[in-house]
Amino acid sequence: MWQSFTQDSRYALRRLAHQPGFSLAVVLILAGGIGATSAVFSIVNAVLLRPLPFSDAGRIVVLHETARNFWGSVSAPNYQDWKTQNRTFSSMAVYRAGGLNLTGDFSPQRVDSAEVSSGFFESLGIEAMRGRLFAASEYQSGGPNVAVISSGLWQRVFGGDPSLLGRVIHLSGEQYTVVGIVADDLAFPADARVWTPTHLDTAFDRNRDTHFYSAVARLKPGASLLPANAGPTRGPRDPLR
Questions:
Q1: What is the pTM of this model?
Q2: In the chain, which ranges are continuous DSSP H helix?
Q3: Domain count, the chain
Q4: Of 3, 148, 188, 219, which cross-links 180 as Cys (Cβ 3.0–4.6 Å)?
């Protein structure tokens, strides 16, 4: 059997050597097919197969606002109403994804970021691996500019310097004090590497018609999505996973 395989291989190689153009085309087609398959699997694995890194991720849901023909992002006043009337979730929060320019004694760079309300880290089960998360007073207007960063950004830009906690970094021209560092694989939403507290008590956020936030919540132990879905203008529609 091995002799037959060797003879067939030699014959195939000789034929390919006599037709280099055809051989190159075959190699390129195979490479493209393998590459595309690998890329698709990487996406499926990341989105569907690999479990989320969050604690007890099966209890995490995203919330969407529904009213008449509208379905999507959330206004701050409506979120505040949900929070007041909530009986199903152990914690709720809103967030707004964006980007900030990080500058300092290094090449300026754009980093993905998110403004988050109180309850954000609790809803996802995220804890600080160094330092702390935001205090209640830091979610109030007029509070200090503070930031939590990912461990990957901490290592890549700041060399893992432990003295970074309590120091000031510059984000889009403003000074922020780093109060905590979280594990890099807990980045949410998208590829966020910096989190700052949002202030829901501003005049802008008191407008019920401004829908700029996304919402996330954690179901109480034993709670079901059925009561959570009740109500014409509120309720989770898609699990985070």
A1: 0.72
A2: 2-18, 20-44, 76-85, 120-124, 151-158, 225-228
A3: 2
A4: 148
Q: What percent of the chain has pLDDT over 70?
A: 68
What is the model's pLDDT at position 179? Answer: 98
Best CA proximity match to 197, nearest among 118, 101, 80 = 118
- Identify whether the C-beta of residue 129 lies closer than 8 Å to the C-beta of residue 165: no
CA distance 157 to 114: 19
Cβ atoms 223, 58 nearer than 8 A:
no
How far does CA 3 lie from the centroid of its chain? 55
Task: Please state, in angstroms and rounded to a whole number, the distance separating the CA atoms of residues 34 and 122.
Answer: 41
Burial classification of residue 128, based on how many CB atoms lie within 10 Å of its CB (0-12 exposed, 13-18 middle, 19 or more buried): middle
Q: How many CB atoms lie within 10 A of CB 185?
A: 12
Residues 40 and 152 occupy one common structural domain: no
Do 61 and 171 lie in a common domain?
yes
Same domain, 36 and 135: no
Least confident span in 21-35, 53-67, 225-239:
225-239
Residues 144 and 206 in one domain: yes
CB 179 within 8 A of CB 121: no
Q: Convert the pLDDT of each residue in 64-88 to its tens digit.
A: 877 666 667 888 888 888 888 888 8
